[in-house]
What does this fold into?
Amino acid sequence: MQVSTPESHPAEHGIWTRTMRVAAWLGWQIESNWADPMIFLIYSVVKPLSSAAILVVMYSVITNGEFNNPLFPYIYLGNAFYIYVAAMLNGIAWSVIEDREQYRMLKYIYVAPIHVPSYLLGRGFAKFVFSSLAVFIIIAVGVIFLQVPLDLSLVDWPLFLVSLVLGLVLLAMMGLTLGSIILNLVNNANFVGEAVAGALFLFSGAIFPLDVLPTWLQPVGFVVPISYWLELLRRALVGPLAANFPTFNAFSNLELLGILAGLTALFTVLGFVVFRYCDHQAREKGYIDRVSNF
Amino acid sequence: MTLKAKVEKNTGVRLFFQTVIGRAYPRVIGLLRERSWFIFEVVLPVISVAAYVFIYRAIGAPDIYVGFVVMGGAMTAFWLNVLWSMSSQMYWEKETGNLALYIMAPNSLMAILLGMALGGLFATAQRALVITLAGSLLFNVQFEVSSYLMLFGVFMLTMVALYGMGMMSSSLFLLLNREAWHYANLAQEPVYLMSGFYFPIKSFDFWIAAGASIIPLTLGLDAMRQLSFAGGEELGFLNVRIELAILAVLSVLFILGAKWLLEYMERLAIREGRLTDARR
It folds into this structure.
């Protein structure tokens, strides 16, 4: 008699991609189907646009609207791309809290024949799609109304695309790491994603050059992988202007790409290792269906 | 043996205040029981404050703006408290099944909201104080208070108006379900922008600033900055006395509005069966 083991079952083939695809669709539905498309579109854009507008007003109050200073595109573009960081880190972390605490579905997800890390990454992908809309609109507003000097014919597209993809993989893996840790947290789980995204905002040079930080804090910025990602994106989009800020001048584009690729590989391994450990701990301690009403 | 001991029941004003204390209690005691929340709720705003301070430093802003950011960052604690623990609280209560109990109990929903507001105000004031102290020490903010009495008056009136607004908007959340979370989320950054949490509201066009003044924190923050920093008056939107008068009017309007809206929305929610439904 032939017995098919779970590993060899045909239904298992392509389980990672199928899980990710369905989770992304689920994430899209959870995020968007509470409102009609127009309200949802406004919702998706108003919040990030307001954040960008705070920086624009702060900048223009002090400089009397001198938007052609290289510092402005530095701040503006860094803030725009940081939307991905907040959305993906927080998004994957929140999907664990939502599924466990609010919808109380995490236990059913666990008993279904799916690949859980792919599920979490799929939920993160939905966040990526929403964020892309906001990033695009913010950059478009900057170019059209605020003199952000982005000339599409001068953009280094290969560098931009490679950096963007590497950075997004890095963010997804950082999100998976956070989500895995949250599997084992009850109290303060909802703060973790926010705290990490907030700290990275401060130390990644997203909205001010790292040189502005006190000298003893500047090394932290060099440890944060997102610093390299944002620098590469700026160089790809507004290359000559990015050279005005000396923080990463010692590195060539290729060196920065190499660092980013290395850190992405490191976080990919780390993400899955941390998930494996935290998943085991959460099962052992019975945390998968724990409800705290945080 | 017969058990005929008479239970003393409070009614009227005594019941109202008993309810207020009863609902304020968990807000205050929660702060002591879960101290880690306090740490997170202080650390996160301080990180935001630091980020905005460094932006101002990068663009060479005068020091007074650093003080403005620290004060604005501290006041975000109140806005977040009103937004998430007052306005949308009815939604959370519905989700956890408490809302129906509130309605069934022989007490006033207004007293429950007032208790939430007082408890929340007390707990949040401590967070705001720590954020102010931490921000001031980290970034060497120099305060130069021109009138402590006026400053206290502005702060208290701002809080009355703000929590009144929170009580009023909470009645709207009685009708909401899953969308409540999104609406509350949507009211964060746009309000930070419109109320000038990180810059003087005078930077806006007069009519935009006037429109934004419907949110009590707009005028409250502006007046507090004028009273707390040397040169603050030059960056003020209106005269502090006018801002005080407007805040007083807003306080009355929001509290009366809260009472009327709460009764109306409660009847509507009961009629439409929305008090117990939880469409997640």
Q: What stands out?
A: Chain B has a mean pLDDT of 88. The interface with chain A takes residues 34, 36-37, 40, 43-44, 47-48, 50-52, 54-61, 65, 95-96, 178-179, 182, 185-186, 188-190, 192-193, 197-200, 203-204, 280 of chain B (CB under 8 Å). Residues 19-271 of chain B form one domain.
